[in-house]
Please model this.
Amino acid sequence: MVCSRGGGWVIALFALLAVPSVSTAHLLSSQDEAYLVRLGPIRMCVDPDWMPFEKIGPDGQHVGMVSDYMELIRRRIDWPIVLVPSRTWTESLELARHRACDIVSALNENAERSDYLLFTRPYLASPQVLVARHDAPPIGGPASLGDRPLGISRNYAVAQQFVQDHPDLVVVEFDSVSEGLRKVARGEIFAFFGALFLVTDTIRQENLNSLRIAANTDYRSDLRIGVRKDEPRLLSILDRALAEIRTDEHIAIQRQWTTSSLDEPPDYTLVWQLGGVALALILGVVLWNRKLAVLNARLQREAALRSRTERRLNSTNSELNRSNRELEQFAYAVSHDLQEPLRMVVSYLELLDRRARDELDPEAREYLHFAVDGGKRMSALILGLLEYSRTSTRAVTMQPLTLADPLGEALSNLAMVIDERAAQIHVTPDLPSVIGDGNQLARVFQNILGNAIKYARPDTPPIVRIDAACENGVCTCAIADNGLGIDPRDFGRIFEIFQRIAPPEETDGIGMGLAVVKRIIERHKGRIWVDSTPGEGSVFRFTLPEAP
Model:
């Protein structure tokens, strides 16, 4: 948006003529007022470096578009909102996660943040664009980027969603928009994905004149206020305050902070002098009212479209969850019901082997042995499928616990095989506390430790080392062994059901243990992976949420 240098005060005069004064109506009930008194001043976390949306200035003050919105809210509810200082956006999110602040001023809603935040209605939208150099070839869309590197901002929800929707992109993450745009200007990456207001302001501030808006995208930031999850009344109060913000107030804030574009603003001074004060005032009021009507119609269309899309997504998610539950119940029922007839088949085959062994020739006895062995293996596979299904259907009890507890249970269950193989288990003292289900985590340790002992080198006693460390609310546990190791090509396959990397005649098992482990870790909101060198051993790592 471009403003005239000479006629800027005239535009301000148009705004005064066309915009009514700010409403002072009180939005709070007596219960709301009592609640705020108990709560005290509303503590607010912000992004300390995200202009023109917001930042924490050198004097420690909150400034930017979002700051103006927060001031409107403060006036509407007549209650103090105080800033909680932070150095980075990641630090602000961690403060919110640990309830060191009551609200986060502006962010996009996603599943991860919904674990600890509630979200108001959106109050500020910004389209997302691709920025490239002026001499770069045209960009037709994400698919046209090919293998050329694209920069995004770390820990920003819209950028992460863009990457998830286009997994073939070569992505480079940056801590700031400024850093990413400078890399584009120097030709070190091809393009950058970011919010229009943010990238244009950064380009102007840092004189990155070699850059241009190369393409629009279908993505945009719908910024909302995040409210700590245990304060739903505060969410209701803020939603009512946001609903009271008028269209002209939205426009005034956005005009104030987005008056610069990538082009040099024209000078309307001569037009103003020749046109006359009266004609300019009349024309300004007409254009202003027309623009308001267009913006209102656009907002209504976008709100209706967003509402329809949300309803379709909710319906699809509900249907998908129902189908997943039915599929898990079906797998459980089938595997359970197959056990009895299969057990009968194997029993009669073994009975036939005992009674008719002397009457059968060697070839027939060998066939009978194959049939019994196959039946037993099929029974083991069905039991494995049953266990895998139970992992998803059985309720879990998430509570704070020390990792030493499920590890101790697993070591107790494996005591006999540890003694038989003379295995050495080394555990780091003072294992951290996590949030999890003790029984299921014991199964995780038992499966991984059992594999470490089972796949040890024949001439070397198994040695297993277990340690864990926590950072930013996430604990990472590592289980290292000196066994046979795993070919890197098999790293992904070993976590799939019925996948084995050793021939059946070399070791027992059905290839289900690590699939069960992966399912348990995912139910705990974590992830699991392996690093290994064939012949030297493996290190399995998995993450769990740290206990507060």
Q: What stands out?
A: The two ends are 47 Å apart (CA to CA).
